[in-house]
Design goal:
By secondary structure, the chain is of the alpha/beta class. It is built from nine helices and 15 strands.
Length: 312
């Protein structure tokens, strides 16, 4: 199979409508999408990624009117989240309508929905006239793709099309389960836990589960080939070969022997570059990656969640 890399939204939408899958940019990471009414195409997502069938997909919409045909109800506190954070990097979990097939939700009675802010993603969904179900565009378990070149690394010859574009945040969306009271944080992301908690109240339940409602709750994620170590400012580094080591963080380690470093100016830059740094290290045969653990607030919480999974 030839993998077309294109800037044409028209071409990408034609391929989706034909029953194929397309990788496309969002403001978080690249998604690997199929139309929600094409079970045959949804199957191709799972096959291409090597994704477990009990790992549900996120449905992406381009207008709020789509919700009426997808969910059973919109609670007042859910409407607050919609009004404050949509379009944007927030995924909300609802009780689903029967119009959504079990092949999208892995047989669950709930559905995860996001209204992306990225203009290319919005236009693609609008042109298809059907919401798009999409996980991140990477081989399952690997770091998510934040550049179209990352998608090509994983899927060249395996998918028909990659739609070019730039991501912004570098980490996946925040996921909130709105089907119980109080609402639950299932995955930290680009919208900080604290902002949502102040608005509607929230409890944090990001541990692994045997029946995940959201991606990232059961299986190992975000992992480069290298061994990942989480370190603090005064951490003692294990005795390893520094010539095959790398570091990413906010403050430089007191050693010049580490082969590859990325010192970020703030947490936003750290988040934006984390997965790309992991992929660069794999490309350069790095064996050990040291990652500074930031303060567990704001997007730092999302970074720490990814680091913990990568190091597990």
């Amino acid at each position: 199979m030839h993998t077309l890399v294109t800037k044409s939204i028209n071409k990408a939408s034609e391929i989706l409508i034909s029953g194929e899958i397309v990788a496309f940019p969002t403001e978080t990471v690249f998604g690997l999408g199929a139309l929600i009414n094409r079970e045959d195409a949804i199957e191709k997502i799972y096959l291409a990624k090597g994704r477990a069938k009990d790992n549900p997909l996120i449905v992406h919409i381009s207008n709020l009117s789509s919700l009426d045909s997808l969910v059973q109800e919109i609670k007042p506190n859910v409407q607050k989240l919609i009004d404050n954070f949509w379009p944007g990097p927030l995924t909300l979990i609802f009780k689903k309508n029967n119009s959504i097939g079990n092949f999208v939700t892995s047989g669950l009675s709930t559905v995860a929905i996001r209204f992306p802010k990225h203009k290319i993603a919005q236009e693609l969904i609008t042109q298809c006239k059907v919401p798009i179900a999409a996980p991140s565009a990477n081989i399952s378990g690997k770091p998510s793709s934040t550049k179209y070149q990352h998608v090509l690394e994983d899927f060249e010859g395996k998918i028909p099309c990659i739609l070019e574009g730039k991501t912004v945040h570098g980490l996946e969306s925040t996921v909130i389960d709105c089907t119980s009271e109080p609402f639950s944080l299932l995955r930290s992301g680009a919208i900080p836990f604290e902002r949502i908690e102040q608005l509607v109240g929230l409890r944090k339940t990001t541990g692994r589960t045997n029946q995940p409602k959201s991606p990232g709750m059961k299986y190992r994620h975000y992992s480069p080939k290298a061994k990942v170590y989480i370190v603090s400012e005064n951490s003692h580094l294990p005795e390893v070969s520094y010539e095959t080591s790398a570091f990413i963080g906010l403050r430089d380690l007191e050693t010049s022997k580490i082969f590859k470093k990325l010192i970020c100016k703030d947490l936003d830059e750290y988040a934006e570059n984390l997965f790309s740094f992991f992929r660069d290290c794999d490309r350069e045969s790095i064996e050990f990656i040291y990652c500074e653990r930031p303060e567990d607030l704001g997007i730092g919480k999302a970074i720490n969640e990814r680091l913990s999974k990568a190091a597990s």
